[in-house]
């Protein structure tokens, strides 16, 4: 995947969307050099930061420490706040796109991609997304939220298309167990 995130430099992302990654990196005792390199030290949850810096950091972590990226997705799940109407894992999957968009500002419609939720059956959900974040982050997030809502899932990155290879989108098949 190209790291040309300059095209996102006018868009900002909320600090509370960055903090789980910061925490996951710290847990793994990697030096803070990675954070400093992109100017993301001392993140405040209610502030906004350049999305291009956040994406550069994510791509860096994805390359060096893929398991950390997955863990960051899981941290998001354990700490995220969401509206009371979201009471099940399925509600959550259907609402991810709204939550994702709320964490960013300054973008034009369609510019930062989206999550699309669909159902194959009552127990099989398909999530397709074309957001600029790495798909390992999605993977961790789906696993983490399943845990948070107390459901067992099997998760499969399906099809050949993958953003890691520079494709436009990734698709996950999530089956409740
Ligand atoms: Zn992928």
Report what the structure shows:
- With 177 residues, the protein is of the alpha+beta class.
- It has two domains: 5-76, no CATH class; 85-176, Alpha-Beta Complex (H-NOX domain).
- Helices cover 42% and strands 18% of the residues.
- The protein contains six helices and seven strands; from the N terminus they run βααβαααβββαββ.
- It has helices at residues 15-27, 33-37, 51-64, 66-79, 89-102, 135-148, and strands spanning 12-14, 48-50, 104-105, 115-119, 124-129, 153-158, 170-176.
- The strands form two sheets. Strands 4-5-7-6 form a four-stranded antiparallel β-sheet, with helices on one face.
- A hairpin with a 4-residue loop joins β4 and β5.
- α1 packs across α4 (66-79), α3 crosses α4 (66-79) and α4 (66-79) runs parallel beside α6.
- The longest helix has 14 residues, at 51-64.
- It is globular and about 45 Å long.
- It starts with 11 loop residues before the first strand and ends with a strand.
- Residues 135, 157, 162-164, 170 line the site of zinc ion.
- Zinc ion is lined by residues 135, 157, 162-164, 170.
Adjacency order of strands in the biggest sheet? 4-5-7-6
Mean pLDDT over the residues = 89
The helix-and-strand class reads alpha+beta
Task: Count every beta strand, where a strand is a DSSP E run of 2 or more residues.
Answer: 7
- Helix and strand string, N-terminal first? EHHEHHHEEEHEE
What is the CA-based Rg, rounded?
A: 15 Å
């Amino acid at each position: 995947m190209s790291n040309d995130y300059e095209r996102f430099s006018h868009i900002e992302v909320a600090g509370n969307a960055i903090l789980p990654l910061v925490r996951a990196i710290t847990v793994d005792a990697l030096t803070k050099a990675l954070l400093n390199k992109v100017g993301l030290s001392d993140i405040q949850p209610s502030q906004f930061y350049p999305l291009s810096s956040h994406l550069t950091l994510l791509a860096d972590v994805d390359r060096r420490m893929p398991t950390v990226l997955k863990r960051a997705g899981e941290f998001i799940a354990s700490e995220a706040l969401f509206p009371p109407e979201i009471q099940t894992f399925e509600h959550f999957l259907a609402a991810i796109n709204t939550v994702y968009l709320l964490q960013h500002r300054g973008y034009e419609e369609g510019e930062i991609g989206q999550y699309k939720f669909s159902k194959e059956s009552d127990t099989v959900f398909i999530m397709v997304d074309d957001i600029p974040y790495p798909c390992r982050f999605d993977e961790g997030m789906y696993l983490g939220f399943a845990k948070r809502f107390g459901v067992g899932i099997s998760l499969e990155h399906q099809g050949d298309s993958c953003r890691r290879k520079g494709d436009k989108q990734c698709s996950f098949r999530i089956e409740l167990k």
